[in-house]
Amino acid sequence: MELTDLRNRIDQLDDELLNILNERMELVKQVGELKRSSQAIIYRPEREKQILDRLEKRNTGLLTRQAIDAIFFEIFAVSRNLELPERISYLGPEGSFTHQAAESRFGGMSEYLVLPTIHSVFESVETGRAKFGVVPIENNQEGIVVETVDYLRDKNLSIVAEVLLQVHFTFASQSDSLRDIRRIYSKDIAFRQCGKFIGEYLEGLGIELIAVESTSKAAKLASEEPDAAAICSSISARLYGVPILFDNIEDSDQNKTRFLILAKDFSNVKSTDDKTTIIANLPNTNRPGVLYEFLKDFNDRGINLTKIESRPMRGESTFRYWFLVEFLGHYEDPAAQEIMHKYGTHLKWLGSYVRVS
Ligand SMILES: C=C(O[C@@H]1C=C(C(=O)O)C=C[C@H]1O)C(=O)O
To answer: What is the stated purpose of this protein (predicted)?
Structure first.
């Protein structure tokens, strides 16, 4: 077929797509009305997953699962906006990896509130200024983001969903020569993840490494200072117009960050593949065997623990700890219920949500 014929055919298909999408939106609007009359929750990640899984099974064409996810997450986001526009806050500035994670679930059309700290994201959701908040919780090379873990315990928010993002860093500077660079801005965690690159290319040049709150703040600073560079995401380098000198400078190409979507008083319906996060404030953690017995309770019930993180009880003179615990399954599963009942107020349930692997 000739180019014009191909394009004419594409135009025809786009017309059909537009009609179908509008037809879909009519149905979504009705779902929205039903939900509003029963005060039901608009965002249903488990339903969205069900749709994506079903489409993947039916798919016989060129689209990969990743492509289906990208297209349909955007459709879901537009749908939810039609049901009820909801504001989403995230750890900024614009162009941060958290921004990217937020957009992957809430699309380009949602109203975003860009906030400077993890604390302010929690607060915006607590006070209702945003319906959802997006924060990083861990990186698979670096471990947890302690601020997020600590606020999960101290504040009263629920986990709605998790998002996994492959992290790539770029080295961006207005300077053409590494010798003219006096300082590099980035987040402390990013400096550590790009240790090999820094060792190979920048050792001995007397360059100062300056940690700032986020990699996009680093890009902004590098856009203002010609003798500075940033280790940042490629979106933020582009957003602030800083030329990228090296791409993908991270030590490991397995580098992934996990983000949480938070909301107030939220609970998901069970899906086929859930994960649950709880906080454990076990009594008498100094008595031998307390933690062992707690973990054994999971093992005895065949529950797969995926994470345990210990954090110090602040404000005490001794060394005592509380734990962030994650396991596969939903909080409503009988085995999980048994454990929740056994430990009562010593456990705080943060959420059960669709697992992303
Ligand atoms: C339309 C609904 O609301 C939202 C939008 C969805 C969609 O566009 O298919 C799916 C789940 C919800 O997040 C629904 O619950 O079915």
So the answer is: Catalyzes the Claisen rearrangement of chorismate to prephenate and the decarboxylation/dehydration of prephenate to phenylpyruvate.
Q: Any catalytic annotation for residue 171? A: no
Centre of ligand 1 from the C-alpha of residue 153, in Å? 30
Please tell me the distance from the alpha carbon of residue 96 to that of residue 217, in angstroms, as a whole number.
Answer: 8
Active site residue 257: yes
Residue 136 CA to residue 138 CA, distance in Å, equals: 6
How do beta strands 256-263 and 158-166 pair? antiparallel
Ligand 1 closest atom vs CA 31 = 1
Give Cβ neighbours of residue 240 (< 8 Å, ≥ 6 apart).
Answer: 95, 216, 219, 220, 222, 223
**138/91 Cα distance (integer angstroms):** 14
- The sign one gets for the Cα dihedral 134, 269, 51, 27 is negative
Q: What is the pTM of this model?
A: 0.86
Ligand 1 pocket, Cβ-based, cut-off 6 angstroms: 28, 31, 42-44, 47-48, 51, 76, 79-80, 83
Burial-class residue 57 by CB neighbours within 10 Å (0-12, 13-18, 19+). exposed
How far, in Å, is the centroid of ligand 1 from the Cα of 211? 41
- Domain architecture of the chain: domains with CATH: 1-84 (1.20.59.10), 86-167+255-266 (3.40.190.10), 172-246 (3.40.190.10), 274-354 (3.30.70.260)
pLDDT one-digit tens code per residue, 226-274: 999 999 998 899 889 999 999 999 998 788 999 999 999 999 999 999 9
ipTM of the complex: 0.97
CA of 81 to the centre of ligand 1 (A): 10
